Amino acid sequence: ETGVTQTPRHLVMGMTNKKSLKCEQHLGHNAMYWYKQSAKKPLELMFVYNFKEQTENNSVPSRFSPECPNSSHLFLHLHTLQPEDSALYLCASSRLITDTQYFGPGTRLTVL
Amino acid sequence: AQSVTQLDSQVPVFEEAPVELRCNYSSSVSVYLFWYVQYPNQGLQLLLKYLSGSTLVKGINGFEAEFNKSQTSFHLRKPSVHISDTAEYFCAVLEVTGGFKTIFGAGTRLFVKA
Questions:
Q1: Is the peptide bond before A105 cis (omega within 30 degrees of 0)?
Q2: Cβ-defined contact of B44 to A101 (cutoff 8 Å)
Q3: CB of B8 within 8 Å of any CB in chain A?
Q4: pLDDT in tens, chain A (112 residues)
Q5: A67 within 8 A of A54, measured Cβ to Cβ
Q6: I need a labelling partner for A106 at 20 to 30 A (CA). Which of A5, A41, A46, B31 fits?
Q7: In angstroms, rounded to a whole number, what is the distance separating the alpha carbons of residues A112 and A97?
């Protein structure tokens, strides 16, 4: 148990749907991250929030929209996705931005 | 880090044999180095990390890694692997600059055979 939970674990959506991924941590961490993990590719950092402020946006398309309402929760809002967006989306948190990251189990997203 | 290279995408090895998973990076600034492991259907978890001090770092499950600054490498080793070590291993580099950005390698799949 890493203390970082993600829901849902699996999601299938059409290209016109709107859905949200949720990440929650009760570790008292101040930094939270969204990563995209695709087969045979390096883990891609998408967004970083540090003390609820977005500090990193790695040229992610606008069809992905993050939200960090408080230091324990992180959302990834999805709309009009493409099939190539199908991947495992991992959330992580760390006490400070330079510390070890603790990962959730991920959400396996399939876009039809 | 401009890049993190894990030289082997897959490493098959027999149980109780030694293993080395290679990681090289390119960076012109100070870095922190990490190895994470991902078991099937799970998120990543930390194996070990190098921040400063001794260049030989020991982690969980009998793994260790050595930071070689001149070769910009951080290879992971284990003297005797178990079936349960079968997993994906990721090397990661955090540049200690204004952005504090972590970059991950593509991963190495370790497959331990009986």
A1: no
A2: yes
A3: no
A4: 459 999 999 999 988 889 999 999 989 999 999 999 988 788 888 999 988 888 877 789 999 999 999 989 999 999 999 999 999 999 999 998 888 899 999 999 999 9
A5: no
A6: B31
A7: 35
